[in-house]
Task: structure prediction
Amino acid sequence: MMRLWRIVRLLPLTLAVAACAENANHLQGFYLEQFASPNPTPAEFTVCRGFYCAEKSYATISEDQWRRVTAIFKPRAKNARLERQQIARGVALIGTIVGPQTGTDSHQWTHVKMFVIPNAGDLTQLDCVDTSVNTWTYMTLMERSGLFTFHRVAQLSYGPLRNTAVLQEIDGGYFAIDASLVDVGVPPPIMPLATWLASWPPDAAAIEHADRADATVTQVRR
Result:
């Protein structure tokens, strides 16, 4: 009942955002304008939690912790696909650094064929709005530190009752980085945004997944 109420409550906002977006990629800045730190730095940034960013917490990344993040990008990736794997691993690592500070280091979600059934009302948990804004923040920290060669951070994208952070290849295509589909510390799956926007669950063959230990690309299991 609580989950249904939240969906009904968000429908007018979803329709408003959809009406404002006039592009095939459904890119929009509404949630970023409402919830994200416009100029995040490792010394201070905000993290969303509790569903629809019901709560925002300040977090920091120490110099030693940031060196762990930058180490993921050494050596530099030789192509965009490998860099996406580094970025996904960076997002996962920052999540483990931030989690203990914000109480969001343990997800309790059920995943059924890439559909997420969250525990509504638990302020330690994250929905797709929370994860998309937070992933944008983490990727922006990395991009502004000069760690990207082949990508830039784009606005968020939305589909029916789901949202995702987005990377764009320089002068190239868009990729969804959807951290709502994994738990803290697991690199989020990467897929062409067109795949993410199409039928759901998405085609597993189109999904890139970075292992925690290295940059090997594997498929996400259904």
